[in-house]
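Figure S4 source data
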Amino acid sequence: MNGTYVPKHALGNIKYIKDLDLYQKEKPFQILIDIPKDAPDQRFTNLVYEDKEELFRDVRGKEHTYSLNDHGFTYRHHDFGFDKYKDRSAVEAYYLPKIEQFIKDEVEDVDKLRHNASLPKGTMIDLDNPTDWLLPAMHAHVGM
């Protein structure tokens, strides 16, 4: 022991999307491109956030007790033997295929993955189409 105390749990704030009646009428959205000047709705977002204090638990040594099916997340330690993350061609040629195989091995019934590169640059995203690729959420969200 080095004399530094490390707490088992810690309190911290997470920004959640606020539960608004508005979301019963329209999906929460955030637009990350320029809105055409003639569009009737000029909003870039309808998101409203609220901070909530949460307890973060130290799970070290208990990682094996969490499963994707039961908890919605899991912990895996894996060394892909890769460190050229700034070299896009190396990432595409070596790292992405390794990640794809890793996900197929870990997640039941996955036979195909869709990469960000599957949409050409400048592609418009149809927010009414739930199969369109979107960026991962940047804030915590529940039940939406």
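Figure S5 source data
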Amino acid sequence: MSVSTFKSVHLAERPRDSIIPGETFTLKTGEAPKESDLKDGEVLFQSLYLSLDPAMRGWLNDTRSYIPPVQIGEVMRGAAVGVVKASKSDAFPVVSYATGTVGWTELAVMPSKQLEKVDIPRNGKITDALGVLGLTGLTAYFGLLEVGKVKAGDFVVVSGAAGATGSVVGQIAKIKGATVLGIAGNDDKVRWLRDELGFDDALNYKDQDFPKKFKDATKNYLNIISMRIRMEGFIVFDYSSSYPSARAQLALWLAEGKIQRKETIITGGLERAEQALVDLYNGVNTGKLHVQVSPADDSSSSGSMVKKEPKL
């Protein structure tokens, strides 16, 4: 590689409430790693897209959780999909695509065992490795089918239905024969759920008549819930041994057109990640939210909404 420096985003201080751009994180520039820096089994990974996910805010808290918090000074944790620029691993030849928890960085030396190969199915694209075929889609799959055990004839209400996970949840529920009601934050998202994803109905929770509309849409289900309810949390990592079969099924549904997806891609490079994460919690995205770190050879933009930002 001819690049001499690279950028990365590090946690500067723990936010007390909301993330504050310019304070919570700091952008650093360092000397770019070279092929000669690699040990056996390592690769030089160049990030193309970052995955922005709601769980990230919790990772900034210094509290006990299912995963250790990001430490002050560390590169911000996050999944990325990218390309191998140099390799000392037979599993990942140069120019192959890979994904993993690489962090908010343009370049990283990664052990190959911490990466996964990216296989793009028919009707797919590289960013699907972070979305419908990544932890987003897997969370929807296992949460609905293994925990929720949804079956034909069920009535499924999906909150955050126009988000990355919720939109997949609703579509899987429809595939399984359930009736699906989606809840979203604006009328455009409601129309997308109804008209393109095939939800039976969808409501805007910001509508002043939402309480009445929700009660009408759920009919007598709320009375049933008040008498019998089961609540169960889960961590998608618990199902890691079943990831291959779940991904195969999700890829098949994607190829068959039974699952649609939309992405919101923030351009402008790594510098935009911090504000994009703030915007995630304000509902800027429809479907999966990504930050484009570097241009990808894959030019497919079907189902993507690109928000271009000027370079700093």
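Confidence is low (pLDDT under 50) at residues 298-302. The longest helix spans residues 135-147.
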